[in-house]
Amino acid sequence: MNQKLDITDQDLKQETQTKPKRKLSGQYIAFLIHSFFGLKITLILTLVLASGTLAVIAQEIDWLLMPEMRVTPMETRLNEGILLDKLQAAYPENGLSNFQPNANFPYTAASAMFNDSNGGFRNAWINPYTGEVLGDTQLLTVGNFLNFLHTTLFLPVVGRSVVNAFGIFTIISLVAGLIAAPNFWRYFFRTPRMNNMRAFLGDFHKIVGVWSIWFLVIIGVSGTWWFYQVPLVLYADAPKLHEPYDRKPLLDYAELDKFGSQAPTALRSDQIVDIVKKEYPNFEITRMVPPEHIADPYEIGGSQGEWLIRGGGNRIWINPYDGTIINQSMADSFTFMQRFDLAMHPLHYGTWAKSGATDLIVKFIWFVFGALMTALCVTGLIIYYKRTKRASRIVSNRSPGIKRLIKGWRIVRPWGGPMGVFKYLNILMLVGVGFGTSVVLTLAVQGVSNAGFEYTQKPLGPWEVKVNAFAGFLEKDLPPIREGGRTNFSVKIPKDSLSEIKFIYARVGKPRTLRAPGTLIHGPLGAKHVHYQLPKKIRDNAELWVTAITWSGDVYQANWPLMPDGKETIDVR
User: Fold this and answer.
1) Which residue of 160, 370, 560, 565 has the smallest Cβ count within 10 Å?
2) Could you tell me which residues come within 8 angstroms of residue 494 by beta carbon, excluding any fewer than 6 positions away?
3) Tell me, what's the pLDDT at 408?
4) What residues of the chain score a pLDDT lower than 50?
5) 286: closest CA among 426, 139, 499, 104?
6) Of 82, 110, 140, which residue constitutes the final position of a domain?
7) Strand 501-508 to strand 543-550: parallel, antiparallel, or no bridges (unpaired)?
8) Residues 127 and 262 both lie in one domain
């Protein structure tokens, strides 16, 4: 005969008071560590995991949303150089960069990036089979938005460092979770109990956790590796763990002098492609970067069948005037640590499969396990609440209204709830993400042409030049000039000047000699810029100088006050 049990609050209170305190065993400490990383940063961790999961299929999302990306496969594709030249002819006022043939994706159009007349960033698309220009789209597509959100959270300065830190948290949480769950391997072959929600979620959490060990290791190791790069190597001068990659070689200035007073005529892009394929018949081009200044070589990136190397990994630099291969950086010459470094991106995002159905299958697996990782974060929080729900019934006999107030206070108070004081850190970071998102959405349309400090238009010889300084794309509203820091100078010069100007430089302080005129300004038409290292000490009357040297040997200069004066230099933030 069943008898109904009447458990009062007093019974629960007495049971709780008589329950012995749990000893701090190694298993319990591991549980506390696992719970700490799972609960204290739940909101921001869930955002990182969910955005990363969607970033795996970012290209596929864009393909579904944007008709400019979709093409019907045909038997043969046009020469990659012909495609780029056709696309450039369709946008004569905008220099193209980062051309991607997308040969591994037969249903996807080829694309190149450019800056429009408003300073915004866009992608132009062309059918790789017919050569038909399909139009252009904003660079910040839904897929790119997800990619940028996952890698930076749109947090200025600290974004990448914060995201990369989650790689370390993943490793620590994984190891602690395995220690906290003795005989965890048994969950490989267990089904979750269905008798109540608490038991189901607990079993689901453990089963998903053990089946995701391999995935958690990949995400944790790659994230930890990137955390070492940013911020430790970048900001803390930690020693690099892999050898430096070959840098792009510049053309010899003495060779350029042989052209005399006339700018040389560059080879067509299809001629450059023919030279590469003649020297490397099995080379599959994945990226083409036309020269960004007169001494810049043509860069071709691609693959010769290597796996686990982002973007192909191989790079070939070609003299754009005579077709000579200046240098090459090929995967078969990379060291183990260089290969390890390049393998992190395709492993992290599941992009290591070659193409077609295999690529979709791998991405689907990464997407599923990314979604399961997100579920681990959410279920961990729910399990915590389920565990503490019973204890929460131990309250005094008060009116329902007072009970609700007390319950609400326990959640809102700084030390209340599973996240405790960390809830406000999560909220603060989410507010930062929201602010950064608004900045990025503005950048997608306006670019950085009106960011930071604006150096008003001035004569540079027979031409007019205008400059603006900005701290960074996510930092466009921060002060761009900081002693010892790096800044970016965006330079607007007329198209007709490019055939006459041999070199153009930017420098803080007037050049004492033309042997040291400053840092070379480069970039495609409409996006000329320079990344400038500022002096550790900047004088109050410091000036920004732009120096142009023509093919005929003429030298022209323009200068502005480095800091805003309200006349020549204006703070437009």
Assistant:
1) 565
2) 463, 464
3) 61
4) 1-9, 11-13, 15-16, 18-19, 391-392, 394-399
5) 104
6) 140
7) antiparallel
8) no
Q: Residue 517 and residue 507: Cα distance in Å, rounded? A: 7
pLDDT of residue 398: 45
Q: Look at residues 402, 423, 447 and tell me which one is the last residue of a structural domain.
A: 447
In angstroms, rounded to a whole number, what is the distance separating the alpha carbons of residues 548 and 466? 13
Distance of alpha carbon 573 from alpha carbon 570, whole angstroms: 9
Helix (H, G, I), strand (E, B) or coil at 316: strand
Pair 105, 158 in one domain: no
pLDDT tens-digit map of 449-478: 778 999 999 999 999 999 999 998 888 888
Q: Which CATH number fits the domain that encloses residue 523?
A: 2.60.40
Same domain, 369 and 433: yes
Rounded (5°) CA angle 4-8-12: 115
Determine contact, residues 42/419, Cβ cutoff 8 Å: yes
Degrees to nearest 5, angle at CA 141 with 139 and 145:
100
CA distance 513 to 505: 13
Nearest to 491 by CA among 516, 470, 474: 470
HSE-up (13 A, CA, CB side) for residue 418: 24
- Asked whether the beta carbons of 125 and 112 are under 8 A apart, the reply is no
pLDDT at 514: 87
Residue type present at position 21: K
Which backbone phi and psi does 95 adopt, to 5 degrees? -75, 135
CATH of the domain at 264: 3.10.450
In a domain, 546, yes or no: yes
- Evaluate whether 511 touches 517 at the Cβ level (below 8 Å): yes
Q: Which ranges constitute the DSSP H helices of 66-190? A: 80-90, 142-152, 159-180
User: Same domain, yes or no, for 564 and 468?
Assistant: yes
Contact 105/73 with Cβ under 8 angstroms? no
Does a structural domain hold residue 229? yes
Q: Quick one: tokens of 165?
A: 């830190």
Are residues 447 and 457 in contact, defined by beta-carbon separation less than 8 angstroms? no
Number of Cβ atoms within 10 Å of the Cβ of 19: 8
Q: How far apart are alpha carbons 403 and 453 in whole angstroms? A: 56
Taking the CA atoms of 400, 406, 410 and 411 in sequence, report the sign of the dihedral they define: positive
Reported pTM: 0.87
| Structural domain of 563 | 453-571
- Given a contact cutoff of 8 angstroms between Cβ atoms, the answer to whether 136 and 444 are in contact is no
- 391: nearest Cα among 13, 14, 20: 13
564 and 484 in one domain?
Answer: yes
Give the tokens for residue 456: 């008003």
Q: What is the pLDDT of residues 278-314, one digit of tens each?
A: 999 999 999 999 999 999 999 999 999 888 887 768 9
Asked if 476 and 526 sit in the same domain, the reply is yes
